[in-house]
Design brief:
- It is built from 3 helices and 8 strands.
- By secondary structure, it is of the alpha/beta class.
- The chain has one domain: 2,3-Dihydroxybiphenyl 1,2-Dioxygenase, domain 1 (Roll).
- It has a 4-stranded mixed beta sheet, covered by helices on one side. Strands 5-8-7-6 form a 4-stranded mixed beta sheet, with no helix packed on it.
- It is globular.
- The mean pLDDT is 92.
Length: 135
Amino acid sequence: MSGIRFTHIDHCSVLITDLANARAFYVGVLGLMEIPKPKTFDFVALWFQLGDRQTLHLLQKPEADTRSPRHFALRVPDIEQARDHFRTHGVVMQETGPIPHCDRFFVSDPDGNRIEVIQWLEPYDSIASGAAKLD
């Protein structure tokens, strides 16, 4: 076992191509609070506060990232309220396979970055709900 102890995910970074579209989605649709990026950065980036000292970083590049199953997940306390919110904003939702004791779906930002929206109805129990063996 490793001698290192991780406490939580600090941040997640995704690529964007259009600053205004990205800001409109992450602030206007997701309702995230933008915070200043480090003053030492010499490149375009948007930073957003997520929960307790976690952040989301959007890095501007000339081309969008390739489409893939990569994603980050945002936890919500009420998944049906989240679905209603995205419907109101005209955001397409993609339902996905079940995980025991949770409800979830995916949305995409203007650059196609996938975002999972998830509500745990009960804490994940790897003994009761986990696969019989590790892959």
